[in-house]
Design a protein that fits this description.
Blueprint (H helix, E strand, L loop, with lengths): L1 H19 L4 E16 L8 E8 L4 E11 L2 E10 L16 E7 L3 E9 L1 H5 L27 E9 L6 E8 L9 E10 L2 E13 L12 E15 L2 E14 L5 E14 L2 E10 L13 E11 L4 E12 L19 E12 L1
Antiparallel strand pairs: 1-2, 1-3, 1-17, 3-4, 4-5, 5-6, 6-7, 7-8, 8-9, 9-10, 10-11, 11-12, 12-13, 13-14, 14-15, 15-16, 16-17
Length: 354
């Protein structure tokens, strides 16, 4: 009897992990590229980067996610996502440093999550404008040429609706746990109709320190505001993209700041291959002395080839033209270039999705 009881107990013990992990999905990708890059042009040799060869991890990541059915259309959801940048001697790997959260999802009412999560502004205004995302030739982000109001909120709560005949809406709130004076929030919506996608969003943050503002002019701000409209249209094997963003910074001292940015591009597919071209620009910084010196632009030319359903080869060339006081950087694999330097890169890589 004791042997039978022990056998049953051991069987149950070894069965428990299998049950607990039944709803866990492991996902992500490993990528690497080799490129030639430089950042020169401002005349300060101490802040210029002469041409160098680099091997990059291109934003590689691994994630774990799952759900549990609670009945009546309700389920618990969770996710832990991590950067893998250290494998090419990079830095910045933090456990759960990417989108990581826990929440509830209802089949009718939508999904609410708590934790670290991309803002509603970032998620729903992305309709495909970043044609070479996760490479040095990417163009979106707070320190990049376009979509400078996007962010991944920490200490946040986010609600996303279900799809209502092509319309999805979302709202995000980032709590300031230090003194409560610089909370951040955003609202956004995305509409899809056949090959057309349109995104619209608003993001606001109060009491922004000079080190954190996306504006190149260094000053503390009472409030940052971003407005963004984006669209993409796919017809047959052609994808057309466009986006416009307007930003306002209410200064604590001196003139308020205003600046816009925009992008246009096209992707043409040829079976397993594609060619991608985009041009983006950052406008003058109204309210700052020498406003035109804060302008910047970026050309991107890229191509991809699908070796299988999960393996993608890619190549790219890009150049950022920073005016005297602009300091736009690569999306990933950034060079710490000073203002006025012009980063440029040409490279090729391989990505394996899992």
């Amino acid at each position: 009897m004791q042997k039978k009881t022990l056998a049953v107990a051991l069987a149950a013990l070894f069965a428990l992990p299998a049950v607990a992990q039944a709803e866990v999905t492991i996902y992500g990708f490993m990528a690497a590229s080799v490129e030639s890059a430089k950042a020169t042009g401002n005349g300060d040799a101490a802040k210029e980067y002469k041409r160098t060869t680099r091997v990059n991890s291109d934003n590689s990541r691994i994630g774990f996610k799952g759900s549990e059915d609670l009945g009546n259309g309700l389920k618990a959801v969770w996710q832990v996502e991590n950067s893998l940048s250290n494998y090419d001697n990079g830095a910045g790997n933090v456990w759960a440093g990417r989108n990581s959260f826990v929440g509830l999802s209802d089949a009718t009412l939508g999904t609410i999550v708590l934790g670290r999560f991309d803002s509603a502004y970032k998620r729903l205004t992305d309709t495909g404008q970043d044609l070479m995302v996760n490479t040095s030739a990417g163009n979106q982000g707070a320190k990049n040429i376009f979509s400078r109001g996007e962010d991944r909120y920490t200490n946040s709560i986010s609600y996303t609706s279900q799809n209502w005949n092509g319309l999805v809406a979302s709202a995000s709130y980032k709590a300031d746990e230090a003194d409560g004076n610089n909370n951040r929030w955003s609202v956004a919506a995305q509409y899809t109709l056949e090959g057309l996608k349109v995104g619209l969003g608003y993001d606001q943050q109060k009491n922004v320190a000079a080190a954190d503002t996306t504006f190149a002019a260094v000053k503390d701000l009472k409030k940052n505001e971003f407005y963004k409209l984006s669209a993409s249209y796919k017809i047959a094997d052609t994808l057309l993209i466009a986006g416009y963003e307007w930003a306002r910074g209410d200064a604590k001292v001196g003139s308020d700041l205003k600046q816009d940015d925009w992008t246009v591009g096209v992707q043409q597919n040829f079976g397993k291959a594609s060619v991608r071209l985009s041009y983006s620009a950052l406008g003058k910084l109204d309210g700052a002395p020498s406003a035109d010196d804060y302008k910047a632009s970026q050309w991107v030319l890229g191509g991809t080839y699908s070796l299988s359903k999960t393996v993608l080869a890619y190549a790219y060339a890009t150049k950022i033209d920073n005016k005297a006081k602009a300091n736009v950087k690569f999306q990933v694999n950034q060079l710490d270039n000073g203002a006025g330097n012009d980063p440029q890169a040409i490279g090729a890589g391989l990505r394996v999705n899992f």
